[in-house]
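Hey,
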Amino acid sequence: MIRLLKTKLIYVLAILSLFVFCMDGWAAKIKSSSKKIKEPVSFVPSALLPLEENIINYSRLYLGSPYRRGSKGPNGFDCSGFTHFVFSRFDYKLGASSMIQATEGERLAEDEIQTGDLIFFKGRNSKSKRVGHVGIVISKEEDGSIKFIHSACGSGVCISNSNEPYYKARYVGCNRILKKEEPERERIYLQYIYPTFPSYSPPLHSPPKSVKKELFFIR
């Protein structure tokens, strides 16, 4: 009789242990699923688009990403961190701050501004002479304003216009980082774009001339 009771007790304890183990597993699963995990963004550039358009298309994939001071992505950016992150995808190394980036590349006249250029603004103090914000030019509009993508304090990665009152009062100018020389662009396509473009396999030295004309035209 005692042996039977011991057997039943062991059986009950085993069931209780299994139940506790399962409950711990379910709790851990629920806890882990509640965390917001940002999946890495996949990007397949087009070999038939100019470099500037590929850069803008890549930057658009991060629209809505949160603003995080001092962060260079991919789960959040400050303004210079965003431009640094996007351009590094295409082997252009930018400085760590908007002030440093404003010293890089070539300062442009207003009628020279194009897609892919960097656009600079003063910081919160519109009377300051220091650069405090940076974005990437999407397009020059017919009214002369500039549409750009950037990481802003209030809204994260978003698209804005230089005619908006806040930015109009702080506009500084634009710089060109992207080199227009064909050999440099060809190197970037061969190393950073063709390998992720599965439907086209170029020779190691250069793409065919028929494709080359479309790849490297300057708008």
